[in-house]
Specification:
The complex is a heterodimer of chains A (213) and B (127).
Chain A (H helix, E strand, L loop, with lengths): L2 H17 L4 E6 L6 H13 L17 E9 L5 E8 L10 H4 L5 H24 L3 E7 L7 H12 L4 E6 L8 H7 L5 E3 L8 H12 L1
Chain B lengths: L6 E4 L1 H5 L3 H13 L3 E4 L5 H14 L8 E5 L3 H7 L2 H7 L2 H5 L4 E5 L3 E6 L4 E5 L3
Parallel strand pairs in B: 1-2
Antiparallel strand pairs in B: 2-4, 3-4, 5-6
Classes of the chains: A alpha/beta (213), B alpha+beta (127).
């Protein structure tokens, strides 16, 4: 190999390392119990064999943002992206510990869960302002999407000019209405899936490669 | 003694001169006292984000439980007000993304808060 070629390769490696684009951090956002951790677990399990965190039907099971680094997603055509997946606590404007008592929790336990949940929501908002490069916004398609917290969150994401894919989750349930979510957010791609059953997640992976790649 | 709820209607002029922190403090202080706040002009997305974060930090067991909020989206009206091409090029981004009339109140007193296309209605209980 000639001296010139070797030198060129060394410079390319050096500058490539210096200016290499950092890995995109994709935040999974949405209201409580939309299925954010179920989807995070599915993505991470499908592509790394690992998991992100536990799930529960009691709201605010996820009370800390959890990041899984270097998740490589590929499609059949050979396209791929490598991203960090950030599973975030469900965003809300109110938390009352008494809500958890209805699930059979003891008052002390419910108060601690509520306090951790408030810290988690604040942390999720902070991540969104500072450290997130793209968003998967999860909605439960059996619920009304036209609630203020969704409108507000999507507005915040838009104002930061972050790419966003809306996921209409729980399409395996009889009351699911992904069409209602599409009509609520016509300006963004909406993918209907079941994170639990795995319905249509391949379409989501293709859209993630196209959108975040 | 007459039971009631205080409603504070805050003009856009009053809000315009405040920083994000001051706006959020003003709103939360009133809401935490049990008042319903009506803003003539809404908050920007960044201010909303900060309001959620600060609200979470103020929640206490058997005390303040958070807020309920409804607003008319900025929609087409604000884009018309942005001043056309030059407004778009040189105008303040914050003002063009700010919402319109906004109602904010304590979550444990606002039993219902709903918005139809052009009507926000709420039922508020006293403390």
């Amino acid at each position: 190999m000639s001296f010139l070629l070797k030198t060129k390769q060394r410079f390319a490696k050096l500058f490539g390392g210096l200016f290499k684009k950092k890995q995109m951090r994709i935040g999974i956002y949405g209201p409580p119990n939309a299925g954010k951790t179920t989807l995070s677990n599915r993505i991470v399990r499908d592509w790394t064999g690992d998991a992100v965190g536990p799930v529960s039907e009691i709201p605010h099971e996820t009370r800390r943002a959890r990041r899984k680094e270097g998740v490589k997603i590929s499609d059949e055509k050979g396209n791929s992206i490598t991203i960090d997946i950030v599973d975030t606590p469900g965003v809300t404007t109110k938390i009352d510990y008494k809500e958890f008592l209805e699930y059979g929790m003891q008052p002390d336990e419910a108060v601690v869960r509520a306090r951790e949940a408030t810290e988690g929501v604040a942390e999720a908002m902070h991540w969104l302002r500072e450290d997130i490069d793209g968003v998967i916004y999860m909605l439960d398609s059996t619920q009304d999407p036209f609630v203020q917290v969704n409108i507000m969150l999507v507005g915040i994401i838009e104002s930061r000019e972050l790419p966003v894919i809306i996921v209409a989750n729980k399409n395996d349930l009889p009351d699911a209405s992904p069409a209602r979510i599409k009509s609520a957010f016509p300006q963004h791609p909406v993918i209907s899936i079941s994170g639990l059953e795995g319905n249509n997640v391949d379409e989501l992976y293709e859209k993630m490669i196209e959108y975040f790649g | 003694m007459i039971q009631g709820v205080q409603i504070d209607l805050i003009s856009s002029e009053r809000l315009e001169n405040l920083t994000t922190l001051e706006k959020v403090r003003l709103i939360l202080e009133k809401v935490m006292e049990g008042n319903v706040v009506v803003l003539e002009k809404g908050l920007t997305p960044d201010e909303q984000s900060f309001l959620i974060e600060t609200t979470m930090r103020e929640i206490t067991p058997d005390g303040f439980a958070g807020i309920e909020m409804e607003t008319y989206s900025a929609g087409s009206e604000s884009s018309h007000k942005s001043g056309g091409l030059f407004g778009g090029l040189f105008g303040k981004k914050e003002s063009s993304t700010a919402g319109r009339l906004t109602v904010i109140g304590p979550a444990n007193q606002m039993k219902t808060l709903k918005k139809d296309k052009d009507l926000i209605s709420t039922w508020v209980s006293s403390k």
